[in-house]
Design a protein that fits this description.
Layout: H1 3-20, E1 28-37, E2 47-56, E3 61-70, E4 73-75, E5 82-84, E6 87-97, E7 103-116, H2 127-132, E8 136-150, E9 155-167, H3 169-185, E10 199-212
Antiparallel strand pairs: 1-2, 1-10, 2-3, 3-6, 4-5, 6-7, 7-8, 8-9, 9-10
Length: about 210
């Protein structure tokens, strides 16, 4: 089973358990725009994005599913060439809301996957950049918070700040390069030090509109 399949299954289970554990709770749908800051070790530049959230996220203990699409730029490593990849963030989240009236803060944790599409690289590109330019689907854990500002009974403005811990991006690329060098030279190459622990961190700042129905 792939990372993506496992992550989607886990996210669906989280949201499903939340949904069946309560009664008569309004559903909600959010549309939003975001700025995503990528870890430089992933060879991706900061990017704007847009997304969709749906579920029952506005109750005291709720849940939602989130999909975010961004178009980060990556360095191809030759003659300052650059190209855009597509980044897909998909996850299920557990939400805890603090009802205070018109402004309602919240916190949440999520689990899912981040997929970065592959980019064709020219001849002569550094092996590490080649590895990082391949299609990647990695499991991700996220946490964050924000606030809703009620415009009326059915519409809220929503601000979110979130950090994603993405597993295996740097580690996979580094391990691929290490094995290639071993095959080419016939020498044993030490494993990557613990400092390169196979994770990167991406940050998201978003604002959107949430509709209750």
């Amino acid at each position: 089973m792939s990372f993506l399949t496992k992550s989607l299954t886990a996210g669906a289970l989280v949201v499903g358990l939340i949904s069946i554990s309560s009664t008569a709770v309004d559903a909600d749908l959010s549309l939003y725009v975001a700025n995503v800051s990528f870890d430089e070790d992933a060879n991706l530049k900061d990017s704007g994005g847009f997304g969709l959230r749906w579920g029952k996220s506005s109750r005291i203990i709720g849940g939602e599913t989130s999909l975010l699409i961004a178009r980060p730029e990556r360095d191809l490593g030759v003659d300052a060439l650059k190209a855009n990849a597509t980044a897909l963030f998909y996850e299920g989240r557990l939400m805890v809301n603090i009802p205070l009236g018109q402004i309602n803060p919240f916190v949440g944790v999520g689990f899912g996957a981040v997929t970065i599409t592959s980019t064709n690289v020219p001849t002569g590109t550094d092996e590490t950049l080649k590895a990082l330019a391949n299609l990647q689907t990695n499991s991700a854990f996220s946490y964050g918070g924000g606030a809703r500002y009620g415009l009326n009974d059915k519409i809220d403005l929503r601000l979110d700040v979130r950090q994603y811990i993405v597993f295996s991006v740097q580690g996979i690329a580094a391990e691929q390069v290490r094995r290639q060098v071993e095959e080419q030279t016939g020498q044993d190459i030490p494993a990557i030090p613990a400092a390169n622990d196979g994770t990167v961190k991406y940050n998201e700042l978003s604002i959107g509109v949430s509709f209750k129905f």
